[in-house]
Amino acid sequence: MKIPADFDAEIWSVVAEIPAGRVATYGQLARLIGMPGHARRAGRALAMAPEGLPCHRVVNSQGRTAPGWTGQRELLAAEGVRFRANGCVDLSASGWEEIG
DNA sequence: CGAGTGACTGCCA
DNA sequence: TTGGCAGCCACTC
Fold it and tell me: Locate the Methylated-DNA-[protein]-cysteine S-methyltransferase DNA binding domain: which residues (predicted)?
């Protein structure tokens, strides 16, 4: 286990910092906790994330939502997140730390 | 120890 | 701007 248990905790902590109406990428979360390149581990951390976590505000670099999880897109839309014509999140407009 | 997999990422056409 | 391909890293069989 190269990845410490704190990894998931750190990811969840960063995810909890994501403001409503904004979205972050797995790579961004991994980078913010000081572990760039571990985006896949970040995704796995969200896969086992608790319900109280706004994991729906996390998408991949393409702005795509999690497979097998259609509610995520609806939750983001309810937060005020904008979407592109293809149904992907508009990271250029709703991306976290991309505005302020 | 080797091969396969995934809520990923970056480059090229 | 969009779609296809290869690389990455840890977990599982």
Answer: 6-81
